[in-house]
Design a protein that fits this description.
It is built from 14 helices and twelve strands. It is of the alpha/beta class. It is globular. The protein binds pyridoxal-5'-phosphate. Pyridoxal-5'-phosphate is lined by residues 71-73, 97, 99-100, 144, 169, 171-172, 191, 193-194, 203, 205.
Length: 374
């Protein structure tokens, strides 16, 4: 079945008792164990609503299995630590979500897990960073906040040639715009707080992959405790039914806004993989279904006063909601980075990151125009 059908139907629990059309929500944290083969408990990630939403997520990413978590970071850390232990080494793209960057810097050194940040998008540079102790290659594409694109197939091939596990944070693209397992990536992670949830009202995470790899993530995750409760599983399931509709509308709005911003004299550069001016435009076309709904731009004027002039687009942390939001990476996601480091990566003082929503695109342009004109 195609994605829009899977969004609605995959993993759905049948309401045998009353014939209701939606999955019943089983909020129990205590389950009978004598009559069942497996002990069910929320932290074991095996209750009916956890399983059902995980099954939908696996279907959407084209994976054998999936797990849901209480946040994106719980999913990412459970996945990473399922493959890495003291003495091991990780090769990781430098342009990743600030929280993941922070977690590696703060936790991995303490645990005796080594890592090398790769500043380049060239796969040869990832290869150079591999050591005998390397176990995992970790990437995020398109990246935050400059929407850089990395070759999924080349990374997956490099990992499998060298006997390593490849992992990607697929939050920005969502499975609507990019399905990394198709290219051979082993584990796909999401902050489901963003597009998968899509309404800025829940915090969750997800991991998808082969049954064997997901079983290893499961075994670690049980000990870290980051489980998702039944009510939020149900909320996530409801949100996923409209994922394809929402993200397609957001993506089409984003492309139109990116093209329009490129023509505005108040703006220096627009970063969006769907623009021909983007350095990896061709690669994005090959590995993405469409370029997604996140874009960034360098404003010639002051970014803070510009954000305050916006009336419809909200300055807000987080992304991927049905409402358009904007952030200044130097003040939010990359605030902890030193000035030097930001310069090295290319994050300017007046860089703005826009998460485009499902509003009418003309209303969004009108709002941006009045804030730019002023
Ligand atoms: C938000 C985000 C995360 C972290 O997810 P939480 O749900 O906040 O734990 C990870 N990766 C990316 C790309 C994100 O945007």
């Amino acid at each position: 079945m195609k994605l829009s059908t899977l969004c609605v139907h995959a993993g759905q629990l049948k309401d045998e008792k009353y014939g209701g059309m939606v999955s019943p929500v089983y909020i129990s944290s205590a389950f009978d164990y004598l009559g069942y083969a497996e002990n069910q408990y929320p932290r074991y990630n095996n209750t009916p609503n956890q399983r059902s939403v995980a099954q939908k997520l696996a279907a959407l990413e084209g994976a054998e299995a999936a797990l849901v978590y209480g946040s994106g970071m719980a999913a990412i850390m459970s996945a990473l630590l399922s493959q890495l232990k003291t003495g091991d080494h990780l090769v990781v793209q430098n342009d990743i979500y600030g929280g993941t960057h922070h977690a590696l810097s703060k936790e991995f050194s303490r645990l005796g897990i080594q890592y090398t940040f790769v500043y380049s998008l060239e796969v040869a540079e990832f290869e150079k960073a591999i050591r005998p102790e390397t176990k995992v290659i970790y990437i995020e594409t398109p990246s935050n906040p400059l929407l850089k694109v990395i070759d999924l197939k080349a990374i997956a091939d490099l990992a499998s040639d060298r006997g390593l596990i490849s992992m990607i944070d697929n939050t920005f693209a969502s499975p609507v715009n990019q399905q990394p397992h198709e290219f051979g990536i082993d584990l796909v992670m999401h902050s489901a707080t963003k597009y998968l949830g899509g309404h800025s009202d829940l915090c969750a995470g997800a991991v998808t992959g082969s049954a064997a790899l997901i079983s290893a993530v499961h075994d670690r995750g049980v000990n870290f405790g980051g489980s998702l409760n039944a009510r939020d599983c149900s909320l996530l399931e409801r949100s996923l039914k409209t994922l394809n509709l929402r993200v397609r509308q957001q993506t089409s709005n984003a492309l139109e806004i990116a093209r329009w911003l490129e023509g505005r004299p108040e703006i220096d550069s627009v970063y969006y993989p769907g623009l021909e001016s983007h350095p990896q435009y061709q690669l994005a076309r090959e590995q993405m279904k469409a370029a997604g709904a996140m874009l960034s731009f360098d404003l010639k004027g002051d970014a803070t006063s510009f954000q305050k002039r916006l009336k419809l687009i909200q300055p807000a942390i987080s992304l991927g909601g049905v409402e358009s939001t904007i952030t200044s990476p130097v003040k939010t996601s990359h605030a902890k980075m030193s000035d030097e480091e930001r310069q090295r990566v290319g994050i300017g003082e007046n860089l703005l990151r826009l998460s485009v929503g499902i509003e009418d695109v003309d209303d969004l342009k009108t709002d941006l125009a009045q804030a730019l004109d002023a």
